[in-house]
Design goal:
The complex is a heterodimer of chains A (434) and B (301).
Chain A lengths: L2 H25 L3 E7 L4 H17 L3 E7 L2 H13 L6 E4 L6 H6 L7 H6 L2 H4 L2 H5 L2 E2 L2 E2 L1 E14 H6 L8 H13 L6 E2 L8 H14 L2 H8 L8 H15 L12 H9 L5 E5 L14 E4 L11 E11 L6 H11 L2 H11 L17 H12 L4 E2 L8 H15 L5 H17 L9
Parallel strand pairs in A: 1-2, 1-3, 7-8, 10-11
Antiparallel strand pairs in A: 3-10, 4-5, 6-8, 6-9, 6-10
Chain B lengths: L1 H9 L1 H35 L1 E2 L8 E2 L3 H7 L2 H33 L5 H9 L6 H11 L6 H8 L16 H25 L4 H9 L4 H12 L1 H17 L2 H6 L11 H11 L3 H30 L1
Antiparallel strand pairs in B: 1-2
Helix pairs in contact in B: 2-14, 4-8, 4-11, 4-13, 5-8, 6-8, 11-14, 13-14
The chains are: A alpha/beta (434), B mainly alpha (301).
């Protein structure tokens, strides 16, 4: 080997080394997406981790750094973090004027108008995904955890006691007395010591939707119809009726939400009014089978289903990687992810046109999937994702006092009406009548 | 220039001043940055309408302060603060004084008692809140379990869920976490009581109550003034233990001005109005402390 060949060889090796180094540096430096999440529960945590791993495998140039917070933490830190340039690229946060609306209206979120067209999300996602994440005329979010409010019953207890599933709201209320006489305490599981007393308010949304027409409720949400009108007051009276019929735990206001629900899971309470979100807690250790249906119709009213989105994915306005963030967002609602969400976490992404028949899920969850996919009746509103934060706080606090007998329905209605007037004055309400 | 610097350092008085300022300035800078600036910025925010996110803060003058007067939630929260101030001040000071006097002359196991009484003070209020939330749990809590075990089922309650019991229940938790501080400070103050006066009073036939009222309490006046003023301020600013146990609930039964302020500014995003509430909270704290110390000092003279 002469000297020239040695030099040529050395030059070639050096060149290859440089390319290899450059290549490896490029390969080792994927785009990093910071993802702030509020997914809770072991099964759901495992699912999101799997989805991220699958995504990173399919997209080696993107790395997802997931950080988990509670909703309260996100509310506390997101605004300042985003404004300081320290926020995430994607955030899984709640919808409504009091949550995503604040950020969207302040210009802190990325408009997804173009993405909805590019990824055909209007076809792929349920309509409330766009409707409930549109603030000031611009859509900012992709909804997830598509849920319905409804009535659960313990099939074993109902069969053992020879009790029929109620076909009307009035029959359901009457069952509270029957179950009390049979020694079930409480007949209806609920605890509202934490989270501002929202469970009892969620029960009211259900009653409201089934007793007041949806367009009237939409007008009230939009600040165009008074919340202290007689029909709305009457719907609050129906909640008082549930209390007076002995449906709830006497210690409901001292019992946490999860402890309250646990009384249903463990068979202590035969009934529960709750959203389908609770199904994620039906673990394999629970042997009882449960039934789920939407609230039985109130006499004189039309049976109405309340649909809601548990939370929403937003992309932050000043993200340096909007394309990669959108790619990840689209993957979160992809066919591959949907099966994982449903089978693993019992959470339903807000998608349409999916055939759930081959999915491996518990019967009660299949009931819900079938119910949602086949529902063509009226749809009501889940208030607190559409009403302003000051309205929600007052509503939650006041309904706890209503249940305790410290306020009348009229007083609760007057309070929330005043809060809506305040929100309208400050331009913090949602207009959903258009 | 060099001469003037040399002259400056030659002047001992100026040099001492410069040294003193050099030591004080870093602490002053931190104080200005973390206390003075936020204080004045909060005043500015209280004159605006702002949701905490929009880039523009709308100046509204004293509108937020005008709204305060017509806000029933503020008055309700303030009334809870006053209940807290009265019960939360009198009770731990009284317990601390009682225990202090009891153990003052030395008893067997003094170190043990002092340690046990002081132990809750080392816990953060958040920890105290968690402990008592568990104690009050209607299903598994030791209080209800004990009551049921001794046949007093009728007294077992949802302590933190009862609008009438929740505030006293949290105050009790707060007192448990604080009386040890009063006890230790009072014990220290008792060391300065003139024993000759006590002995003289004994010779004169003064009973225990008379010795307490005429000798011990006057002898402790500076200590009592200090801990009472301190406890008053804590009563106005109380937040963490309430937030951990009830978050102001059930309903509004345990909201105090600090929890209401936090709720308004951060949960409801009314930052301008929340800032006005924070200023009111500071003023109440300042005025109460001033009044108390003035009365006490006048009494002392």
């Amino acid at each position: 080997m002469n000297r020239l060949n040695v030099l040529r060889g050395a030059r070639l090796i050096a060149l290859l080394l440089v390319f290899a180094l450059l290549g490896s540096a490029y390969a080792q430096d994927p785009v990093e997406i910071l993802y702030w999440d509020q997914v809770s529960g072991d099964e759901a945590q495992a699912v999101i981790e799997t989805i991220i791993a699958n995504f990173e495998e399919a997209h080696p140039n993107i790395k997802i750094n997931r950080e988990v917070y509670t909703l309260e933490q996100l509310t506390d830190i997101s605004r300042t973090a985003i404004e300081a340039g320290e926020g995430p690229d994607i955030m899984y946060y709640d919808s409504g004027p009091g949550y995503g609306g604040i950020l969207g209206n302040a210009g802190l979120l990325l408009s997804l108008e173009e993405a909805y067209a590019t990824y055909n999300w209007d076809e792929r996602l349920v309509s409330v995904s766009r409707d409930w994440t549109t603030y000031g005329g611009t859509v900012y979010g992709v909804g997830h955890e598509f849920e319905a409010q409804g009535f659960y019953w313990n099939k074993r207890i109902f069969a053992d006691e020879g009790i029929e599933v109620p076909s009307t709201f009035e029959e359901m209320v009457a069952l509270c007395g029957t179950f009390r006489e049979l020694g079930y305490d409480p007949p209806m599981a609920a605890g509202w010591a934490d989270w501002g007393g929202f469970p009892i308010s969620h029960n009211w949304y259900n009653v409201l939707a089934n007793s007041v027409p949806s367009d009237t409720v939409a007008a009230a949400i939009s600040g165009e119809y008074p919340w202290n009108s007689p029909d709305i007051v009457a719907s609050l009276d129906l909640v008082v009726g549930l209390v007076e019929a002995g449906c709830y735990d006497e210690q409901g206001s001292a019992t946490s939400f999860l402890d309250g629900n646990a009384k249903f899971y463990t068979g202590q309470a035969p009934m529960m009014l709750m959203s389908t979100w609770a199904m994620q807690f039906f673990t394999d250790e629970i042997t009882d089978e449960f039934g789920f249906m939407i609230l039985p119709p109130i006499e004189g009213g039309e049976q109405t289903m309340i649909q809601l989105m548990g939370a929403v994915w937003y992309i932050i306005g000043d993200t340096e990687h909007p394309e990669e963030a959108l790619t990840f967002l689209n993957y979160l609602v992809s066919d591959e992810a949907i099966r994982l969400w449903i089978e693993g976490a019992k959470l339903l992404p807000g998608v349409t046109g999916v055939d759930f028949s081959g999915y491996d899920v518990r019967p009660v969850y299949r009931d819900f999937l079938n119910l949602v996919s086949g529902w063509d009746g009226p749809v009501g509103y889940h208030l607190d994702v559409l009403t302003p934060a000051n309205f929600n706080t007052t509503l939650f606090e006041s309904n706890v006092e209503l249940a305790a007998g410290r306020l009348t329905s009229q007083e609760v209605a007057d309070r929330i009406n005043a809060e809506m007037e305040r929100a309208v004055e400050d331009g913090r309400h949602a207009d959903i009548t258009g | 220039m060099t001469d003037s610097i040399r002259q400056f350092f030659a002047n001992r008085k100026l040099r001492d001043y410069a040294t003193a300022y050099a030591f004080v300035l870093p602490a002053l800078a931190i104080y200005v940055f973390f206390v003075v600036y936020p204080f004045f910025y909060t005043i500015y925010l209280s004159l605006t309408k702002w949701d905490g996110a929009k880039p523009v803060k709308e100046f509204v003058g004293f509108l937020n302060y005008e709204k305060l007067f017509a806000d029933p939630r503020l008055w309700s929260a303030l009334s809870h603060n006053f209940i807290w101030i009265i019960l939360g001040t009198v009770t731990p000071v009284a317990i601390g004084l009682f225990l202090g006097v009891l153990l003052w002359r030395g008893v067997r196991g003094m170190v043990f008692f002092r340690t046990v009484y002081f132990l809750p003070v080392v816990l953060a209020p958040v920890a105290v809140g968690i402990i008592w939330k568990w104690m009050y749990n209607p299903q598994f809590g030791p209080i209800n379990s004990t009551l049921r075990a001794v046949g007093l089922d009728v007294l077992a309650k949802g302590w933190l869920g009862d609008p009438y019991l929740a505030l006293p229940a949290i105050i009790l938790a707060g007192v448990w976490g604080y009386f040890g501080f009063c006890f230790v400070v009072i014990m220290a103050g008792l060391q300065n009581i003139d024993m000759e006066q006590i002995d003289a009073a004994l010779v004169d036939g003064a009973n225990g109550a008379q010795r307490l009222w005429y000798i011990i309490i006057p002898g402790l006046r500076h200590v009592l003034t200090m801990i009472t003023a301190f406890t008053l301020i804590l009563g106005v600013n109380v937040f963490d233990i309430i937030w951990i146990t009830t978050r102001g609930g059930p309903g509004r039964a345990t909201h105090v001005i600090a929890t209401y302020t936090y709720n308004t500014a951060f949960r409801e995003s009314y930052v301008g109005y929340g800032s006005a509430l924070a200023i009111v909270m500071g003023l109440v704290s300042l005025v109460l402390s001033f009044i108390f110390i003035s009365i006490r000092e006048r009494g002392g003279d």
